């Protein structure tokens, strides 16, 4: 889709604020609404007009029951554009880093969280620690490693999270993290890996796909993504290109699913497809068991 086509397609903009792009639909009227116009309902967000119609259509009995069983009119949480999930992830990751600085405690905590593929296979390591698939993204090797990853997360998250909504953003981040861990398992089995780079590359990939879908100028995103991807293959940088590639591929796939299942009637299909992505990633973790010679050499 070209930029001109994007601008002509009003479905890509909030119907109440035509200058604001959005990726979220009102669950009743299916019109696009920006974060300011989103009101959290029982089954998703609704626009101000649908909220007003819903309140006006209440019967006297419903209004009486509401007054009786609540302290007043039902509290309604209005969404905003703040990337809360992004802030939470940054805060949690920084917290883990600070714990890692505590003498006598930090090293042990980090060793229990880093991603190390053999820890998933009791027959190889004598342990089964599946949480490492995700907690490796919380551990970083240095202040600069942490700072660069969290800066990238903040820059991407503040744009992508309001577009997708918080639960979609969480799903994207977790699946991208899992994709990076699976890629390391298949391509660099015995290498311990730390950092949120796999998840960050998943966000990069999602931003690329969604930006292209919306008709935005994605040249800058493509250049930054390409440079960071190439750096992972340069000897001496000590970067896990496997995690980068795995996170990127999953991010691209998840974003493609999001762009093709926007309508409320497609919610079940979206959940099924995202679950299928997770199931495929988990299934790939059985490759070292089925084909150990291929992975372990």
Features:
mainly alpha, 15 helices, 297 residues, two-stranded antiparallel sheet
Describe this protein's structure:
Helices cover 61% and strands 2% of the residues. A hairpin with a 2-residue loop joins β1 and β2. The longest helix is centred in the middle third of the chain and has 22 residues, at 143-164. It has 297 residues and is mostly helical. The protein has 15 helices and 2 strands.
The largest beta-sheet arranges its strands as 1-2
Poorly predicted ranges: 68-79
Helix content: 55-70%
Count the DSSP helices: 15
> Which term fits the overall shape?
elongated
The end-to-end span amounts to: 45 Å
Q: How much is the radius of gyration in Å?
A: 22 Å
Major sheet characteristics: 2 strands, antiparallel
Order of helices and strands: HEEHHHHHHHHHHHHHH
Q: Overall mean pLDDT score?
A: 84
Kindly estimate the percentage of residues that lie in beta strands according to DSSP.
under 5%
Structural class: mainly alpha
Number of strands: 2
């Amino acid at each position: 889709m070209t930029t001109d086509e994007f601008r002509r397609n009003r479905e890509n903009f909030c119907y109440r604020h035509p200058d604001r792009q959005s990726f979220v639909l009102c669950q009743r009227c299916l019109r696009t609404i920006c974060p300011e116009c989103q009101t959290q309902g029982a089954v998703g967000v609704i626009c101000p007009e649908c909220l007003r119609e819903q309140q006006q259509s209440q019967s006297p009995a419903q209004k009486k029951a509401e007054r009786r069983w609540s302290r007043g009119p039902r509290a309604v949480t209005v969404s905003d554009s703040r990337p809360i999930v992004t802030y939470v992830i940054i805060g949690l990751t920084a917290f883990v880093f600070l714990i890692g600085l505590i003498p006598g405690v930090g090293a042990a905590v980090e060793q229990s969280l880093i991603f190390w593929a053999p820890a998933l296979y009791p027959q190889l390591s004598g342990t089964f620690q599946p949480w490492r698939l995700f907690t490796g993204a919380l551990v970083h090797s240095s202040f600069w490693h942490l700072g660069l990853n969290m800066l990238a997360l903040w820059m991407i998250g503040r744009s992508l999270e309001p577009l997708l909504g918080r639960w979609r953003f969480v799903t994207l981040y977790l699946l991208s993290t899992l994709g990076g861990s699976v890629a390391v398992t298949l391509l660099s089995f015995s290498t311990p890996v730390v950092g949120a780079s796999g998840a960050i590359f998943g966000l990069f990939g999602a931003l690329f796909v969604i930006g292209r879908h919306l008709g935005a100028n994605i040249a800058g995103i493509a250049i930054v993504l390409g440079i960071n991807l190439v750096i992972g293959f340069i000897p001496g940088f000590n970067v896990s290109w496997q995690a980068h590639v795995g996170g990127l591929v999953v991010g691209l796939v998840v974003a493609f699913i999001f762009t093709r299942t926007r309508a409320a009637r497609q919610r079940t299909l979206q959940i099924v497809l995202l679950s299928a992505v997770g199931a495929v990633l988990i299934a790939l973790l059985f490759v070292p068991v089925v084909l150990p010679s291929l992975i372990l050499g």
